[in-house]
Every structure is written in structure tokens, then in C-alpha cells.
Structures
1.
Amino acid sequence: MTDPYSHPQSYRRLNQSLSSSSYASVAAGATSQSSPARFGALSHLLHPEDDPPTRSNMTSTKSPDSWSARPYLSTKMPDQDSPPSPPLFIRPSYLRNSRHVERLETQHTVELAEFDQLRRHPQSASSSQDLSANIGSATIHRSRKDLIQDYIARNPLRTNAPKKLPTCWSDIDKWPGLELLAGATEVKFTGSTKTSDEAAAIRSDHPMPKEVGIYYFEVTVLSRGKEGLIGIGFSGPKASLNRLPGWEPESWAYHGDDGFSFSCTASGKPYGPKFAAWDVVGCGVNFETGSAFFTKNGVFLGEAFHNVRGDKLYPSVGMKKNNEHLRVNFGSAPFVFDIDSMMEASILPHLGHDFANQVQKQRNRVKADINKTSADTLESARDETMLVQELVAQYLAHDGYVETARAFNREVRDERKPLHMDSDGVELFDPSQDLHATKRQSIRSAILEGEIDKALNFINTYYPHVLEREENRDVYFKLRCRKFIEMICRVNDLSTQDPPPLAPKAAGKLPHPSNGTTFDHQMELDDQLHRESRAPIIPPMPVPSPFNPGLRFGDGANGADGKHDTMDTAPDGVQLVSSATDSEQLLVDALEFGQELKAEFSDDPRPAVRKALDDTFALIAYQDARESIVGGLMEGKGRVEIAEEVNSAILVSLGKPSSAALEKVVAQAEVLVDMLSSDGGAGTFVNVRRDCLQ
């Protein structure tokens, strides 16, 4: 079961990541379904310490925002009195265009919001208390241990989640004589060795994901004795930690005492210069070619290893002498070596080393393979241009862009006439399809404007049995939650802005229909996506609930009698409340509707439903909910998502596919790229959204 109130990163399903999809399901056409102030002050987020300064002997061409790092969640349990820290996410600058990192960032955004909401509102983890009691009660601060346990319980391991990037050294996967410092980004040898072959090694908290294609990190030598032994490289999980990396099976490393490279054996080969204190050594692995390279102080040293294989390879370092001290940079700060330029095709020819040219050749080869793929077998009766035109036309019609679809059809016909091609062009509609498309357009327009009650009336008028289906229960649930969110949006906008001047009703303006049977056929969805996201305040219209006939969609927003206070209308048609009293009444109405919403779904045992209710109700705890940790619920993309789900449900009820053919093509391409990327292959150099849809 999918989360009934998930938050997509993009506004269109074409750009959503498909981490939970499979090739078989896509090919078969299957679809998946500021600090609070209003009711008391809560603690603020703690900011992490600034990153330590990094040494650089080159002029960087990177933009200031080309790298980012966020606070991290330590791998061990800290003191009970210390405040909880949100999960860490590091986006190395050279991976900013990686589709794998895009998926990681989307997942991290959700995890960060969940963790911060739980820390600020520990009581929201329980939905058994009365909603109004939750509003008025004070927050009970709990220990860090309890909060982290709650976070883990509410966020079980995601089996289909993208593999994480290394963020720090592991406090578990290390030799006991090593001490971790500076948030586990520094490691210092404080023990002793008994034999000449004994040493102390450590691995990172996560392996390098092959899905990124090329992974790179740097290590700064903060301290090294004259006879010290330091190895920098990577190893598998079975490599021994009481010997230097490179000496053991499943380990590869570059050693600083002699400049040799070691590949799974104690017999090394001459490779590069020696390194000592304050040298910066970088290590990179190319999973597509199975090769690895090193850098020293920003200078590329060439490939050190070939035929590198292993399911899980961790960045690893080892040392042998007391007080030897290393600092790692996994991408939280700019690198000394210009790895960003090496990954950018436009700058590669100017670097002058073979590895950069090799990366460019890999990219060119992958793109050439894609471009030379024939489309003849996809549709024998159409050439490639006509096939693309039909995919676009069907997508526009499917998603309700009626006028745009018609305009596209006319343009295609006009374009084909001078070429003496088929004058019929791309056929879009028959009369029945046109009628349903207009109805679906009206429903989507209402949702995109935040007028949920109006959309519900349209649904029950045109497609009365759609929401009664058990498979659409989640769609109905999301619509109910969205109505509550829109009510809070209106309350929030009124409470955070000065009251606008009142204006008489504009001449010629017709009131909103009360029976839901008339609407403006000229509303076009293309314009809706660019309109202001704040919805006009309109009287909701009563509609029976398909799953609870005793409830009315309008109840709670209007009171039991369905009456409304008098409101003025501005010249642009947006109705305005006339006083602060009306704003307070809107809040009361929202709370009443929230009670109804909670009562209606309180018996639903699904964790996703309970979490969605908790997240939705958390909006009432903030003076300015848009700036809160749950403010993302109020963004326009939430309207787009539910509008698409309603549209799909209606199409299925009409015996039509829930997804457009173009969406299925893109989804299938994403799954195929995932398959090609899983082992570090050619798919790692392809980003479907960036390379094909932009």
C-alpha cells in the first residue's frame, strides 16, 4: 500500500522517481497508487558546527551552492541530555546531476521532515488523544533515546530505498585502537601494535553505491610520524581491520610511506609519490570500467587498479603509529581535486589527462547507443515523428489539457499539409471522449484552485460511483485531508497578512453554483498551474460521503446548519472576510471539520493513514504554517498530486488506462535505467528527466 499522503518532489508524474517500480509491472501497465507559536513555544532546531577549513592549492570554478551538507544522526547513542540531530545528507558537487542522488535527496527531505516533526511534537506520534486536547496541551520533552526510538519505529527500513552515500567513519566497523573525532569525520590512532604486520583500519558508514557510476572522496593527513604507515583506499566488508587496506583480500589502497599501490596483497607496485602531513589524497572508483585512481593535492596520479570487483566497497583508511590523524571529506566541502570539471563534458577536453577523456568517451558511447536504437519495432504503421506526436497528443488529452491538445492537433495538421503527408494528422477525440475530457478538466481545475468541495460536487454529479469503489478509498481519504489543508491555508493567509480593503461585489459576477451542475467550460488547466496557489474562500456545498453517509462534505466547514457569514468580493472575484472575528470562525470551522475527519478514519489501522492524519493535523499548531516543518503540505504540488489521482480513478471507471502512454514509456525507461545502473553499468550516466525531458 502506498502512502496515502506522499509528497512528490516534482509537479508532474513524468518527473517522479519510480524507486518502487519493477520492469514487469511497468511493462504490463500496472500503476502504483518555523517554530510553532500559536499554542505555545517549542524548542528550535540546533545548527551543526561549521565544517573545518579545507586546504586547497588550486582555484576552484565551482559555484558556492554546488555542494551541500546537513546535520547528521550519529551512529551511536549520545548522552541522554543532548538534543536529537536530524539525519545527515551529503550531496557531493560532482554528483549534482546524478539521478541516484536526486532520489536520495527526495528521500532525505521526507525523513528530515518526519524526524523534526517528531522532535518538535512528540505527542503527535499518538493519534488516540482528542484533537482539541492535542492543540491546547503543552509539549512534553522526552529524552533523545525515546525520540530516536520513535523515529525508527515510525520509519521502518525501506527495502526499495536508494542506497545511501558514505557520510562519516563507522564507529562499529573499526579497529578498537582508533578514536573518532569531529562528528566521525576524523580518525586518530591512540592504540598500539604488537607485531610489524599489525595495524588499525576503519571503513565508512555506508558503501559506495555503484548507481552513481563514479565515486570520489578525499583524505587529509593531519599528522604522520617519520616512520608512520598510512594506507588510503577502499575495501569490502570481509577485509580484516587489523591490517592496512590493500594488504588483505577485497582491499585496495595507496600507501604513503613508499608510494606503492596494493591490490589485495602485501606485495605492492610503484605508483605515485609518497605523502605526509597536510597532504590531501583523493581516491576515485569507476564502477562501469572497474578501475580506480588517486590524486595528491589536486593532481591526478593516473589509474592504480583494474578489474576492481565487489558487491559492497567501503572507503577505508589504515594507520600504524600512535597519534597518526586523518580527516575525510565525502563531499560536505569542496574537493581539492577538480572532480566537478572532470565530470562535466564541456570542460573535459581542457584537463589533459586520460581519465577525464575516458569518462567523456563513456558518456558519448552511452548516448550514441541510445540514439542509434531504432523505433521501428515500437509501431510499424508510424514513423518515429508521428509516434512521438501521437504520444504527446494522447498525454495532453489524457491529463485534461483539452484546449492545448486541440491546438497541438491543429499545429500538427498544418505542419504536415505542405509536406503532402497524411492530412488527417493525429486524431485526438471522438464526441464522447471530448465530453468526458471537459468534465475531467472541470474537476481538475477545481482541485488545482483549492476548491475541494466544488470538485467533490462535480465528481458526484458526473461520476457518482467513482469514490464509492473500495480501490478508490485512498483517493477519497486524500480529498478529505486536502479539504482540511485548504481550510488551514485560508486561516493561515488571513492570520499572517493585514486585512485587505473591502470592495463591493463586482458587476456582472455570477455567484458560485450551489448544485454543482453548472461550471465555466472555458477554464483551461494550462492557466491553472500558473495561478496564485491561494484558493478563494467559497461556501462549501454539501455532498454525501460514499463511505459514511451520515457525514456531509460540507459539514465542519459551515457548521451543522450549513450557514455562512457574509463575505465581500474583491473585483477579481476573490471573496474576503470582513473582520478578525470571521478569521477566528474559519479556524473553529477547520477544527470542527478536523474532528469529523479524525472520527471518520480513526478505525483505519494502516500506519500510513495514521501518519497522514498526524501530519495534516500538525498544521494547526503553527502561527504561520507555511513556514513550519509541515509547510510542504500547503504547497501547490499537493493539489496537483490529488488532481492526477482523481483523474486516473475516473479514467479507470470509464474503462480507460489510468496512465498516459507517454507516462508508461517514461516509467519503463526509468526502470530499465535502474536495472542498467544497479551494477554500476552504462545506466549510471543517464538521467532520463535531465537528458530526455528537459
2.
Amino acid sequence: MARKSETSVVQELMLYAVSAALSSLVLYVGLRQLDPNRSSNKKALEQKKAIAKRLGRPLVNTNSYEDVIACDVVNPDDIDVEFDSIGGLDQVKEALFELVILPLRRPEIFSHGRLLSPQKGVLLYGPPGTGKTMLAKAIAKESGAVFINVRISNLMSKWFGDAQKLVAAVFSLANKLQPAIIFIDEVDSFLGQRRNSDHEAMTNMKTEFMSLWDGFTTDKNSRVMVLAATNRPSELDEAILRRFTQVFEIGKPNQSERVKILKVVLKGEKVDENIDYELVAARCEGFTGSDILELCKQAAYFPIRDLLDGEKSGKNSNASPRALTQADLEKALSDRKGKKASRGLNAGVETTIQEGGDVQNAIYELSKIMSLFAEQ
């Protein structure tokens, strides 16, 4: 009887152990499926493997915060933008090559003395559509540096203190992956002037960012650079501006630069060889690089429309679209200017109606005052 009771106890214990193990396994699998960061963690792991393969060395262990930032890491081999892909800005590109790209690519020739220390902060500013973000990607491509595209939404966390840890993860991951470029687009939205209305979490993030940035600026051997772009440099905090050792204005292109942009945009496309680039560029005065790109995209639809019209009428059923011509570009220009004029006219009508309403209100108020005087 004693042996039977011992056997039953052992069986029950084993049953409990197996049940507990199965319950733990089910709970673990269920929690993994419910984990909101599961997909991002998987993406981060794939990114780290790709980067480690490119660097030719195993990537050191990263924490959960660095894994979040790793999702925004771009391998320079995957960037398809080079300096030759950007029309114009020759002087800016030359300066960026000497001051930014060479120190990242050839650190040994900049290791002597303090005067030739690598740039730790570079700011690109100018109106929207002038190619600041493209230029930033081209810098990473030309220098071979890992590109960390910092998104402010990824730094914000509902958990107290996590924002500072995510900011710290940006710099710690960049240090592990160096040479690395930390890029912040629309930096004024993150590192703008401090105001009394700023949330405490945002203030702490700014302080943490500047503190960590200062740590890298004092390290001569560090090949980590903060690269930022903004449309509103006047909105930046003065303490932040002082940390950008190089500032470049990326303005609207001039006539010769517009010609270069047109040729870069239309390179490899099916275009008529008689296009007068100088004339088209002259008619694009005030356009940004983005405007010129959109203009060419609009013009490229006209050959498609002609092809479809021909198919509807029973002609050219097997033909390919004709080449893009000067007339297509000029028609796209006319359409664009017509739309702008229409928007301006509508705005003027709205203003006139509003002003007319204001006049009527003023007359009504004046008549009320006059009637009061008449009663007295």
C-alpha cells in the first residue's frame, strides 16, 4: 500500500509539472502573439543582420530600446541617391565632400591635431522642395555611413522615462554602427526654441539629446555625426544652433541649376533630342527641384494620353508611347500656371467677399449709433 501511495504521489507531481510547463508555454506563446512590438522587433532583427553582414563583423548585443531605433536604420548600400542624382548645388556638394564625407571615409588623414577634427553637427536649411533630404541621403551614400533616420514619433513613449532611454539608444546604436549619420528631418519640431508651454517629457528629451551630443563632440575618435534639415532655422533653439558647426543654405536653384536638374530628371527617359533645356529652365523661374520633378511627371502623361486616344480611335494599337517633347513640357507649365492663377483668383474673391461683409457690418453698426443719437 505504501508503494502504491508513493507511486500515485509521484504521478500526480509529474502531472502537475507537465501541466505547469504546458500552461507556461501557452502563456508565453500567447503573450508573444499579443506583443505590440513583435513585428518591429522582427524587423529590427532583420536590419541588424543585414548591417552586420555589410560591416563584416557580428553586431554586438543591443537592448530593446536600440532595437526600436534599429527599425529606422538604413544601410548605405540600399540608398539609391548619389551626388550625381542631384542637379545643381555644385558648391554645396563640394564643401560637403571636403568637410563631411572625407572625414567619415578617410578618418586617418584627419586624426592629427584639433583643427581637422570631423564635423559633429551639420544643418541644411532652406525652403521646402529644394532637396535637403535627398542631399542628406546622398551624404550617407557617398561616405558609406549607416543612416539613422530619427523619427520623433518613435522617440515618444507613453511610459515615463522611456523617451530619454530611446534618445540615448539613438547615440549608443550609432556608436556601435559607426561610421554613422543621425539624421533629423524638420529638426525645428524636435529641437525648437524652448517655451513655457513645452511638455516636461519633451524638455527632458531635448536635454538628454544635447547632453549625449556633447559627449560625442568631445570624442575625437568618434565617427558619428548629427545631420539635420529644416525649413525654419529661426525656430531652432540657440543652444542647438551653436552645436551645428557647419550650416548650409539650400535655396531655390538658379537658371543654370534648373537646367542641370531638368537633365538629371529626364536622364534615361524617352525624350525628344530637340528639347531646349535653357528655354524650359527660364520659364521655370522660382521653381524648386521638387517642382521641376512634378512638372516633368505631369508632362510624361501627355504621350500616354495620346497613345490611349489613338487606341480608342483604332490607330496605333501596338505602338509604344511617343517621346516626351518640348510641347509637353510647355503644356505642363501652362497648366501649372493656370491652376496657380485660378487659386489666386479664388483667394481674391474670398477676400473681397469677406471685406464686403466687413463693410456691411460697419455700416450697420454706424446706423445703430446714429439712431441712438437721434433718439437723444
